From TrEMBL:
InterPro entries: FANCB. Residues 530-539 have a biased composition (Low complexity). Residues 530-552 are annotated as: Disordered. This is Fanconi anemia group B protein. GO terms for cellular component: Fanconi anaemia nuclear complex. GO terms for biological process: interstrand cross-link repair; negative regulation of double-strand break repair via homologous recombination; positive regulation of double-strand break repair via homologous recombination; replication-born double-strand break repair via sister chromatid exchange. PANTHER family: FANCONI ANEMIA GROUP B PROTEIN. The gene is fancb.
Length: 844
């Protein structure tokens, strides 16, 4: 093995980078006692050690390729590709065995497993030798060309196959989709009869696995197909069945060209000729690099952001991209030529990312002298500092804005005082212009006096909520009834709900239908109508005015919508077509509503008539851009029917970016004009509807509300996690309706049983402790005399009484009252969970 490392391996390098290591492959003939000579495939892996500034051997091994003396074994190609079966990146080596006469060629594709063993993957036989455009791609798939025909084989193909069209000037690449596809680009070979056909001047693409032909000009324009030497697809997607992609290509004209959807976006002049391969280096926050390898051992690196040459090297034996330092970002490994025959396989190399990381050996360049390795926590420290810097800049901008407003107010105040002293008339700007809220009404005195007169002579109006509109919707097998009402903010209401009563026409007693009610503020909750009556309104102050485009015009009026959802089938089965809608609420008498005992109020809202033949198509699903009352009612109906999940997203290291824009672009949601906070995704039918609402509190935190089925929510969450940074945490907010009511009921019952057991046990233990104290204070008597015998009899009688009391214990009234109070509270929670579970069962 040492001879293999020092001699053959250095002269015939077949190297690849895998899992932060560099692996060497070579063939060797070994003698055997029984079978003569046999051919073996040897490999050896090396990992970089910073302390030694050298690559040290990590693992080695061998596999027998052929036992025939006449067979000639050679390595064709080696590359790291994605194994779709195991969903991991694996090292693949393609070897060939040639017969003695050279009439047949046996090919084998081997993979290097995680246990450092070479395992056979694909074997096939050809009557010719592969020479042109041999590629190992994801799958793994082996692809090559022969006589202007593209052949391929894989585990899925089950043999050697060819694509259905013949192409010239072939370029091979693969799409980086979640289900990546291999494709071939080229010019179609046409006969003389079809020389005038339009397709002869177009680039044609063909997907290898399914043979689907597409317009190749969407990837690479026709003028570039003849000069492109290598191609790398950076991003790809499919919108409405049309392929959209971003690629970078190296041409024979010494150009690196950046394409978007078949259009040239940028060009970089390359310093060398004959490019052979393009690799991408992800240096983390420092950016990305394109590493282009050329013939005759030349390499250059190009910045992706600026598309300018970053560095170039010559006399390079091979170039590799991987995380050789284990720091979370990728680096470039350049292995240089002129290796010493007696030395280690890696005597002259350079590891760098052109952003501060540089390790070299056997070079003597300035990079090896001046550059120093970064600290272990360098990247984590920089990321944390950048995050704090972004947050601090945002806070600083807000403080500067507030400071400018205060300066203007102070200047106007000083000017007003100067005018008063000088006897001049003061002209102040309106508070709306400064983005402030007035401490008092800004109307003139005449308006105030007129308003006071109107208040004195105005008749007493009813303080009960006013019903503005009654509506209903049918969504699949559920009926939604809604009421829009207005309430005086000085007499707030709470405990609002709806109930539906059937009117059969024959029975004098109407039946109540089981419903589930919800309350929505229209368009925003009124500040004074808090659900807690003990929260007093804050005194008015001059503070920055928030966005109030959705606030009602009348500040003393709060509009809200109350919905009730019920099952449609029982209504139709009972031959009921008319239903009365009743509003239930509690109205506080004053600000000290907790002291009084408000009684519930029932208000008749009207009737709804059901007709199974009506058209219940949602206007919202047809056109979300409409701004009508019907569309607003459709939105409220969907919010009442769909389950809701609220997710808290926290990104400690990176800013979240434009998540709202990503949802509209990637998922395909559309804004609802009646309420732009909500985004609508309408796949097909009401059951596939999804409503999304994103609220970003800081650049690093936000809340996402998802209204949909559970399956849709999980699918969307999977796509979102793929978009968000890896350090993001997504936590569900407690109290969302998506939580299982059955689980809540089970937890409540468990809590009730545990509380009862612990409470009773604690109560009896306290009684036993008191009895033990009484027993310890007594004196142990011996029946030596008549008096001692009497005391022993008294002790025995107390023991008998204590045993009887354990069977029917008597406890302290205070402790028993505390136990009953705590158990009552626990049982009320269990009853509430049981009620919610029952409602969910009846409505499901």
């Amino acid at each position: 093995m040492e001879g293999f490392l020092s001699d053959e391996l250095c002269r015939n390098p077949h190297r690849l980078a895998h899992c932060g290591k560099i692996t060497f492959f070579n063939r060797k003939r070994a003698s055997a006692t029984n079978d003569g000579e046999r051919s073996e495939l040897l490999f050896c892996s090396f990992s970089f050690e910073r302390g030694d500034n050298a690559f040290l051997k990590a693992a080695d091994g061998a596999a027998v390729i052929s036992r025939r003396r006449s067979a000639h074994v050679d390595i064709v190609k080696c590359k790291c590709v994605t194994d779709v079966r195991k969903r991991v990146t694996t090292a693949c080596i393609l070897v060939t065995r040639t017969s003695e006469k050279g009439h047949s060629f046996q090919y084998s594709l081997l993979t290097l497993s995680s246990s450092n063993k070479l395992e056979p993957c694909i074997e096939f036989k050809l009557p010719y030798q592969m020479k042109d455009n041999v590629s190992i791609l994801q799958g793994p798939t082996v692809l090559w060309t022969h006589d202007n025909t593209v052949f391929y084989t894989s585990l899925k193909a089950g043999g050697v196959k060819q694509i259905p069209i013949q192409l010239s000037h072939i370029v091979v690449s693969e799409l980086p989709l979640h289900k990546g596809q291999i494709f071939v680009l080229g010019l179609p070979n046409v006969s003389e009869k079809s020389l005038n056909d339009q397709l002869t001047s177009q680039t044609v693409g063909c997907f290898v696995e399914n043979g689907l032909v597409f317009d190749g000009s969407l990837v690479l324009p026709h003028p570039y197909i003849c000069i492109t030497q290598c191609l790398f697809v950076l991003a790809a997607d499919s919108e409405d069945g049309v392929l959209t992609c971003t690629v970078v290509a190296a041409t024979s004209k010494q150009q690196l060209v950046y394409f978007e959807n078949g259009a040239v976006k940028d060009v970089c002049q390359l310093p060398f000729e004959q490019p052979e391969n393009i690799q991408v280096v992800d240096a983390g926050r420092n950016g990305c690099l394109f590493v282009v390898s050329f013939h005759q051992g030349h390499v250059c690196a190009v910045w992706k952001e600026t598309f300018q040459i970053a560095s170039l090297w010559s006399d390079v034996s091979s170039v590799h991209v991987d995380d050789f330092l284990g720091c979370g970002t990728e680096q470039i490994l350049l292995v240089f030529k002129d290796q010493g025959a007696a030395g280690q396989p890696l005597e002259k190399f350079l590891i760098t990312d052109l952003c501060g990381i540089s390790y070299s050996r056997g070079q003597g360049t300035e990079a090896s002298k001046t550059s120093s390795p970064p600290a272990e926590n360098y990247l984590l420290t920089v990321q944390a500092l950048e995050s704090r810097l972004q947050s601090g800049l945002i806070v600083l901008q807000e403080l500067q804005r507030e400071g400018r407003v205060k300066d203007r107010v102070l200047q106007q105040t000083v000017g007003a005082l100067t005018d008063v002293v000088s006897g001049r008339e003061t002209v102040l700007s309106q508070h709306e212009q400064e983005g402030l809220t007035a401490l008092w009404d800004c109307d003139d005195e005449s308006k105030d006096e007129a308003l006071d007169d109107k208040m004195q002579h105005a008749p007493t109006v009813s303080s009960k909520p006013q019903i503005d509109k009654l509506w209903h919707r049918i969504t699949e097998d559920q009926m939604i009834v809604g009421v829009i009402l207005s309430s005086d903010s000085s007499r707030p209401v709470s405990g609002v709900s709806l109930s539906i009563l059937t009117e059969t026409g024959q029975s004098s007693t109407p039946a109540v239908i089981q419903t589930r009610s919800q309350v929505f503020w229209l368009p925003a909750p009124c500040p004074s109508s808090s659900s807690s009556a003990s929260s007093f309104p804050e005194p008015a102050a001059k503070r920055s005015k928030q966005h109030n485009a959705s606030r009602p015009n009348d500040l003393n009026t709060c509009r809200l919508a109350v919905t009730a959802v019920t099952k449609l089938t029982p209504l139709l089965n009972s031959d009921c077509v008319k239903c009365s809608v009743m509003l239930h609420y509690v109205q506080r008498q004053d600000a000290f509503g907790l002291v009084s005992d408000p009684a519930p109020v029932v208000l008749h809202c009207g009737q709804v008539v059901l007709d199974i033949n009506d058209d219940f198509q949602s206007q919202l699903l047809k056109n979300p851009q409409l701004r009508t009352d019907e569309v607003r009612e459709d939105l409220l109906s969907l919010l009442a029917v769909l389950d809701r999940w609220v997710l808290h997203i926290d990104s400690p290291d990176y800013s979240l970016g434009d998540i709202d824009g990503w949802i509209q672009k990637r998922v395909g949601c559309k804004k609802i004009e009646v309420n732009p906070e909500y985004l609508l995704l309408n796949s097909s039918g009401p059951s596939a509807v999804m409503l999304l609402r994103w609220h970003q509190s800081t650049p690093f935190q936000g809340k996402l509300s998802v209204h949909s089925s559970q399956l849709q929510m999980l699918q969307f969450l999977d796509s979102l996690l793929a978009y968000l940074p890896a350090s993001c945490s997504v936590r569900p907010v407690k109290g969302a309706r998506g939580e299982s009511t059955a689980q809540m009921f089970a937890l409540a019952l468990e809590n009730e049983v545990v509380s009862l057991r612990e409470g009773v046990s604690l109560l009896l233990c306290e009684e036993d402790e008191e009895e033990a104290k009484k027993k310890s204070t007594g004196h142990e008597e011996t029946p030596g005399s008549a008096e001692g015998l009497l005391r022993c009899r008294e002790v025995w009688q107390r023991d008998v009484e204590r045993t009887r009391m354990r069977l029917s214990p008597l406890v302290d009234a205070v402790r028993y009252r505390r136990l009953i109070q705590s158990m009552t509270k626990v049982q009320l929670e269990g009853d509430l969970a049981a009620l919610l579970n029952t409602q969910g069962t009846l409505l499901s």
